[in-house]
Amino acid sequence: MRKILVASTNPGKLKELREMLAGGIEWVGLSDFPNVGEIEEDGKTFAENARKKAIGYAKATGLWTLADDSGLVVDALNGQPGVKSARFSGVKEANRGLIDHKNMAKVLKLLEGVPREKWTARFMCCLCLASPEKVLIETSGKLEGVIIDKPAGENGFGYDPIFFVPESNKTVAQMTSEEKNAISHRGNAIRSLRTYLEKIL
Ligand code: IMP
Q1: Which residues lie across from 30 on neighbouring strands?
Q2: What is the pLDDT of residues 65-104, one digit of tens each?
Q3: Is residue 32 among the annotated active site residues?
Q4: Within 36-153, where are the H helices?
């Protein structure tokens, strides 16, 4: 059975990948490799960060490695928060809820005075699977929507409460995880990876 390392300590991501990708794979996470040092996400694009992590951890562990990078892109803010989505407000508190709150507040502050019809945005996700020798598969996925100034919904994480999807008539935070996975940037990138992965396993 092929062993694949998911370059993440986030148990949610590991679970999502296990559920959505082909059987016949033994998935392991970074928590199984406590001695492997962290690889910095300092690339200019989501694809660059995913590739850097996949190749770096594959070389460090000798395993095929799957890495992702994702974030929010707001058109009127020249693509910000982009690769800085996780740390946009600069807040580093351990409390995830507070970080999310401050990140959303910063986006809304920057959009003040911008006409509403220009509040278009998308969530993006890039995935990269690499062996220690080379990149094997790269895929990406997106979810189009608009930013709203009144956060709504309790589900999800990050910018979900201010990201409204017109086709669904709700914010991502108002969706169940099944509804979100069916249309999300990450769901789309994983489904596209699955097609290629089945061919090379
Ligand atoms: P990472 O890919 O885990 O580094 O996540 C980057 C950041 O982008 C997260 O911390 C969130 O702020 C934001 N982000 C990525 N995906 C989502 C999503 O599905 N909903 C809301 N925010 C997201």
Answers
A1: none
A2: 999 999 999 999 999 999 999 999 998 777 888 999 999 9
A3: no
A4: 46-61, 96-111
User: Residues 131, 50: contact at Cβ < 8 Å?
Assistant: no
pLDDT at residue number 22: 67
pLDDT on residue 17: 80
pLDDT tens-digit series, residues 147-178: 999 999 999 899 999 999 999 999 999 999 89
Cα–Cα dist 136/115, whole Å: 43
Distance CA 119, CA 131 (A): 40
Mean pLDDT of 57-69: 97
- Token digits for 170? 């709700």
CA of 10 relative to ligand 1 center, distance in Å: 12
User: Ligand 1 pocket check: which of 69, 99, 159 to mutate, most ligand atoms within 8 Å of Cβ?
Assistant: 159
Whether residue 155 contacts residue 175, with contact meaning beta carbons closer than 8 Å, is answered with yes
For the chain, list the domains and their CATH numbers. 2-200 (3.90.950.10)
Strand 64-74 versus strand 135-147 pairing type: unpaired
- The reply to whether ligand 1 has any atom less than 6 angstroms from the CB of 16 is no
